[in-house]
């Protein structure tokens, strides 16, 4: 392919992003006869094509909230949920491990992180913050380039009937620097499918080599583009479909290695495909968006949407239409998946999106208050069949959007007021103070984006103190980095090559069933068995497989079986030690075990040499394990109690536990009241008091599918799956007629649990905070820690009671009143930080606030009403000192303040002391 042609096409593609040409107002269906297919029909046709013609399994869209992947803010591609397959870490007992060829329609959000299209939204006619990605996958070499290209071509040209001459394709032209050859295989496949040679272009790594991140699986891709112009002249290309051939791994040192298994990963934007099939140049002129645009017109009473972009879009009305329509879809989908507008990470991005939508709707479209929320039902109507979670949460979405819109509008009003007030204090050439702008901004109090604050100032013709603002921003960053939770050390991992090698050798996954081998002695204590195992493989710290390790070496051990619980399902990993059989006096401490693709890697520092084939005996740290068991069973009881108290729709969002404490995130409309917190604790205590049996059993995953009340977290479950049921045998709990899961705690869970609830002892919620709007994080302790927390609460309640009594007795003496006030402050600090019941903390905080106010009033009264040393008044004293410093002073007989300047503070203090001594 001539380089000039490739460059021309590249320029076209880049230019296209904001090209007004795709904003053409005319509808140009390429086939005049049948009416254009609806978006629903287009989506369905894609899925049935891959299912019925090519034997693909259909899988549902994953939530837009990434599952256990801190590198992502939002799910931004269909492949995200299949990452464990590419990395080789998929649990072999999960349904996903069996996936060979699958297809789906994935909800994607590109509004932050590596893929961020937020700035393009509204300006062009092809990028959205939320869009649907249609994809098909072939895992482990099930099929590769030829079949993937053939299927795509067949679907586009035969099923959807897109004329072949409107399609262009690109392939990877190689990267000599990285030692990568051009992907001529893909080029030849396209030519063999009949694509005209002039429509086959090659590009470099930036366009046609796809990487998941800085490291990890990657490979060349081939893209299918559609020519919007279609007049045989210069093409106007828009990318429709990207076919990625994953065959390499980017190593930590930057080099590329072949992957043990190859995969096909494709993605096509539904909105763009529908635009093509509905004969329009804009995704907004499709039935996915037109109901929203209509609703915007009606709701705001503005002139109809005309699809103009750039300079032609006078007053940015059409851009505002697009921004609002796009953003309300994103907000609805995210909130339905449990990501609500908030203060950091993805929630913060969502908050910005909401505020951007409010600004465009109110400032450009002159929307009435409450307008954004009124668009939610339109989104639910267009997308609710494909993504039922939207219907399920529609009321909550409306509420959240409306509340946030109202809050933002109120902030805007207050912001304007504060700006006006500040301006009154400023001289004509003064800069607007950075502190005030900061307090108005997203990082400060009112949550107005800084660019908006600047705009508001610009309207007033004032300049902002930008240097001061930069300093504040830097201080904030430093503060945050100090506050950030220390990143958890990742520990030793099996990399994609090690996993591929184990799979190639047919090494079976680690048998970790002995982790469940424990029993309850008649005395009430637990007996944990040991486990004998063989060393199958050893790994050095950098993940290299070795046959032996030497003294003092940190290493990873793969055994044929284990009784260690590897970190998963929110339960901390076991710790303990192992010994070599026959050499029981040398302990190899094992601080943690991690699971990867069904293989459990034990981390150890070898005090002696160890080699493959050695027999070892494993011992878990029993106190640690028992602590985890107590906390895990308590977590289930807490989950159950929350549903009892807050209603059956209450959803768990996540949890984590170790022997010290348990953390539980729950979706809530508002913070829990002290009464609710107490009620939750009461329900748990009741279940603990009854010392109910905890039943655990593995069952086929299918048996759990329709059990009323049984919840599935957003997790990949193994099949068979373990069911944990409190008080009711598992078979009965799963019997649809029993309704048991509505009446007791029944959960799918791989954790290690107590065999009876009594050992939880007690549970106290000691902390509660809003993680983001709609999510509350609870911290709880159990057993003795819970008892101690109650005692601390009692003691503090008594102190507060005593202080209240002292206060109510009244005082004639300022010093005594001041001491009381100080005591209130000290008590408030203690109550704020103590490990005590949260409900009680909240009650005492409320009481202390009132008491503190009363104490302060009492001091003021005594000070003003009681002063009797007229010769030596505070005012006279202050005046004497301040006038000495060239300043002034004012006040009453008992309190005074003043100003003055001095380079010698000591001298000023000496003057003060001398004056006082002279008077007394
Ligand atoms: P573009 O260059 O147009 O931004 P991309 O290279 O970022 O696209 P991919 O990451 O390959 O796109 O995603 C696969 C497909 O998803 C694209 O071919 C396109 O059809 C669609 N797509 C990507 N980003 C968006 C978006 N922001 N809005 C709508 N569709 C999108
Ligand atoms: Mg893009």
TrEMBL record:
One of the record's GO cellular component terms: mitochondrion
Catalytic activity: tRNA(Ala) + L-alanine + ATP = L-alanyl-tRNA(Ala) + AMP + diphosphate
Keywords: Aminoacyl-tRNA synthetase, ATP-binding, Ligase, Metal-binding, Nucleotide-binding, Protein biosynthesis, RNA-binding, tRNA-binding, Ubl conjugation, Zinc
Modification(s) after translation: ISGylated.
Coiled coil start-end: none
Free-text comment on the cofactor: Binds 1 zinc ion per subunit.
Gene Ontology terms: biological process: alanyl-tRNA aminoacylation
Limits of the Alanyl-transfer RNA synthetases family profile domain: 37-792
Cross-referenced Gene3D superfamilies: 2.40.30.130, Bira Bifunctional Protein, Domain 2, Threonyl-trna Synthetase, Chain A, domain 2
MF terms (GO), sorted A to Z: alanine-tRNA ligase activity; aminoacyl-tRNA deacylase activity; ATP binding; tRNA binding; zinc ion binding
Family matches, as InterPro entries: aa-tRNA-synth_II/BPL/LPL, Ala-tRNA-lgiase_IIc, Ala-tRNA-ligase_IIc_anticod-bd, Ala-tRNA-synth_IIc_core, Ala-tRNA-synth_IIc_N, Ala-tRNA_ligase, Ala_tRNA_ligase_euk/bac, Thr/Ala-tRNA-synth_IIc_edit
EC number in record: 6.1.1.7
HAMAP family in UniProt: Ala_tRNA_synth_B
Function statement: Catalyzes the attachment of alanine to tRNA(Ala) in a two-step reaction: alanine is first activated by ATP to form Ala-AMP and then transferred to the acceptor end of tRNA(Ala). Also edits incorrectly charged tRNA(Ala) via its editing domain.
NCBIfam families listed in its UniProt record: alaS (TIGR00344)
Name the record gives this protein: Alanine--tRNA ligase
Species annotation: Panthera pardus (Leopard)
Upper taxonomic lineage: Eukaryota, Metazoa, Chordata, Craniata, Vertebrata
